[in-house]
Recover the amino acids of this structure.
């Protein structure tokens, strides 16, 4: 009997244990399927076996999450999708988020989910795709602000799904830079208008302003006058703004304005207007903490109706009687106006203007950075093919997983504002995250933003129509198709990437050259040898341009030179468009004469002053002359540079220097007649010969380089040939010289040497150039064809 009972007890215990184990496994599988790991009960967690099992479960889940993270990043990079966010919700601190736009919101729609048997993505903005042209206004002056504007525009274009119209109030410098940039960028469904800031200065010049932005920091007050009278609404942005969402969401808030509201602003996130920053601190009057004017929704039609121009003037005049000047430019006047007319303002949630200046309360606009990253990732899960309304099944699963992680503290970051003079060096607990987001757009390839708004009707520009026609004329079966395609490629151009200040004289000469990243080390040496103005075109990617910027700003030599114009031509295509890049540098020289050189040559010391005297003595203003600067080379990376012609001749005799390319391409410089140059004391004329390619000084109105020649071969030869066709006299200067410094061979010369098809296409382009020259100059150009056939 005892044995029977003992057997039944064992069976009962075994059955009970099996039930517990199966239940535990079931719960484990269910929780893992829902994206959560099983937390063991306290009574089981203390056992070693349970701890090992729990650790294994967690490690497995971590690996799954990492794999899903990689998949999300891959999808985002491939789609370049626009981040679709839910409408503004009541997130976090009421002081910062409360407005007419906030309120409880759940991204799920249970009824629709049941009816359609799917999970909905984050809600679309109230402005539907393609339906609305969004107007964006910005005041931009100077070289630095123009660079900032490009990053702002990139962040907007990356997320946008609507046509855009940018309105820029600019000075002369910014207008030249931005007009060239947008004309060469050719972004579909983007219009750009410019307004002269000089015409608006009289409207605000009477206001004393201590802010570092100067008079341009007051110009947003004049927008009702500056912008077209038929423009009813505009989003107004500072240049130091970065978008992390579709700007259409912000535009959609106009629909939530009451009938009396005319302006939308985010509350200021510092204590400035509270007047407690230091003893005797007396700010301008403001409503509570005041408002920040880095992001403004301006209802222009209503502002004109309430006579805004008169109202802000009266406000400014009244306050200046006691305040004497503004400290925060237009922001002080806007706040004083709102203090008197609070009913006119619509307060935006603070995440529409997260202000990253020192000692702000911006952290109350978002959660910890780790949560923020998750929120951004979840917001970016979209279906590029289907638009924002639905997610594909795989993306919906990913979205639900991210949402399950962040549901207790959902936050959507919208706009970052670097509103401190320190900019990226600002003190902020999460500055690394924000800096990385900013750098993403700073170095983002702008060519990728030329994409069409698929599904949206767009009106083609004359330039795009011409480009499309040229592309259709090309024969893709032509073995030289890539060369011909490169000739019509439109490269983005950013003029005056760094500050340029120079007033030329009547006899002034600019050194004109081009370079890529692999020749960057030559810049400092050239600047030491040539004290005059320089026009440099740099062929770089967006990321390389930022590397160059950091290099130039850190260089003791370069950062002190304000007479060097740096013009960035952004990379596109497989060839180096050397003559296009040269032409950019040539067009933007602002002196009467130009010295057409290459960046791997160092001019002799004092050459700048010598050339200025030569252009006067040879009367180049009234005659067609090309002054030849004899070229030499060294094979030594370290060279004691000759200080005179006599010292150079000595080094030439000793074998330290050579005439340029005498052992590789003698014909390129042989017509210079180095033997005569050794003893010459006055300029002498030489005749053109086939393949002659000297470095010359000419008037700025000389012919441009022929852009059909890309990469290596005939890019300078063709230019000298056209100078000769236009009857320029080639005059060799007796006391001038330049020396080529050694460097690794370029990628293009390697292709020329290794590819028969490359050389065949170059021959074809030569023949076509000769034919074009004959059509252009008639019988005078026959000698070039004859010379070529006699080679």
């Amino acid at each position: 009997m005892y044995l029977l009972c003992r057997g039944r007890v064992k069976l009962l215990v075994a059955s009970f244990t099996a039930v517990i184990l199966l239940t535990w496994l079931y719960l484990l599988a269910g929780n893992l399927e829902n994206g959560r790991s099983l937390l063991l009960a306290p009574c089981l967690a203390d056992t070693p076996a349970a701890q090992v099992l729990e650790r294994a479960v967690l490690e497995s889940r971590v690996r799954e999450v990492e794999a899903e993270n990689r998949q999300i990043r891959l999808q985002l990079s491939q789609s370049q999708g626009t981040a679709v966010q839910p409408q503004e919700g009541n997130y976090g601190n009421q002081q910062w988020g409360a407005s007419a736009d906030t309120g409880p919101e759940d991204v799920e729609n249970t009824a629709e989910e049941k009816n359609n048997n799917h999970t909905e993505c984050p809600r679309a903005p109230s402005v539907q795709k393609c339906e609305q042209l969004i107007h964006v206004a910005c005041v931009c002056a100077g070289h630095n602000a123009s660079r900032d504007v490009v990053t702002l525009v990139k962040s907007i274009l990356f997320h946008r799904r609507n046509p855009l119209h940018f309105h820029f109030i600019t000075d002369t410098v910014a207008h030249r830079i931005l007009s060239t940039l947008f004309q060469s960028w050719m972004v579909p469904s983007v219009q750009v208008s410019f307004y002269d800031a000089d015409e608006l200065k009289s409207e605000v010049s009477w206001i004393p302003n201590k802010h570092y932005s100067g008079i341009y920091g007051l110009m947003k007050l004049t927008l009702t006058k500056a912008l077209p009278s038929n423009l009813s609404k505009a989003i107004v942005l500072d240049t130091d703004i970065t978008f992390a969402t579709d700007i259409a969401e912000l535009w959609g808030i106009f629909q939530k304005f009451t009938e009396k509201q005319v302006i939308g602003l985010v509350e200021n996130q510092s204590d400035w207007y509270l007047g407690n920053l230091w003893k005797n601190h007396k700010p301008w009057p403001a409503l509570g903490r005041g408002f920040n004017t880095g992001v403004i929704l301006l209802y222009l039609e209503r502002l004109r109706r309430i006579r805004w121009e008169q109202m802000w003037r009266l406000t400014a005049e009244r306050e200046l009687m006691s305040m004497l000047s503004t400290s925060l430019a237009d922001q002080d006047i806007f706040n004083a106006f709102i203090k008197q007319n609070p009913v006119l303002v619509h307060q935006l949630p603070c995440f529409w203007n997260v202000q990253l200046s020192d000692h702000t309360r911006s952290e109350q606009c978002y959660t910890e950075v780790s949560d923020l990253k998750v929120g951004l990732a979840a917001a970016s899960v979209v279906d590029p093919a289907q638009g924002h309304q639905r997610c594909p099944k795989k993306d919906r699963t990913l979205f639900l997983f991210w949402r399950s992680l962040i549901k207790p503290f959902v936050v959507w970051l919208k706009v970052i504002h670097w509103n401190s003079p320190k900019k990226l060096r600002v003190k902020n607990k999460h500055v690394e995250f924000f800096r990385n987001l900013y750098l993403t757009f700073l170095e983002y390839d702008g060519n990728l933003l030329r994409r069409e708004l698929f599904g949206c009707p767009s009106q083609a520009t004359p330039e795009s129509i011409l480009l499309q026609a040229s592309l259709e004329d090309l024969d893709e079966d032509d073995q030289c198709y890539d060369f011909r395609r490169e000739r019509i490629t439109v490269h983005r151009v950013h003029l005056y990437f760094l500050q340029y200040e120079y007033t030329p004289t009547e006899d002034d000469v600019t050194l004109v050259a081009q370079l890529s990243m692999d020749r960057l080390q030559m810049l400092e040496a050239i600047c030491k040898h040539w004290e005059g103005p320089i026009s440099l075109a740099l062929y770089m990617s967006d990321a390389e341009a930022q590397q160059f910027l950091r290099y130039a700003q850190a260089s003791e030599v370069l950062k002190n030179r304000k007479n060097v114009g740096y013009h960035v031509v952004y990379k596109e295509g497989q060839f180096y468009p050397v003559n296009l890049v040269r032409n950019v540098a040539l067009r933007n020289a602002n002196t009467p004469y130009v010295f057409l050189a290459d960046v791997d040559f160092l001019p002799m010391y004092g050459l700048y002053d010598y050339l200025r005297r030569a252009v006067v003595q040879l009367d180049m203003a009234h005659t067609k002359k090309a002054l030849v600067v004899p070229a030499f080379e060294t094979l030594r990376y370290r060279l004691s540079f000759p200080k005179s012609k006599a010292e150079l001749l000595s080094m030439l005799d000793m074998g330290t220097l050579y005439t340029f390319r005498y052992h590789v391409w003698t014909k390129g410089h042989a017509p210079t007649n180095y033997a005569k140059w050794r003893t010459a004391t006055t300029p002498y004329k030489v005749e053109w010969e086939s393949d002659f390619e000297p470095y010359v000084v000419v008037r700025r109105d000389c012919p441009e380089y022929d852009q059909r020649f890309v990469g290596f071969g005939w890019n300078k030869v063709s230019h000298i040939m056209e100078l000769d066709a236009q009857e320029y006299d080639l005059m060799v200067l007796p006391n001038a010289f330049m020396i080529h410094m050694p460097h690794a061979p370029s990628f293009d010369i390697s292709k020329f040497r290794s590819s028969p098809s490359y050389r065949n296409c170059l021959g074809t382009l030569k023949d076509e150039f000769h034919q074009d020259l004959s059509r252009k100059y008639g019988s005078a150009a026959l000698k070039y064809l004859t010379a070529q056939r006699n080679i």
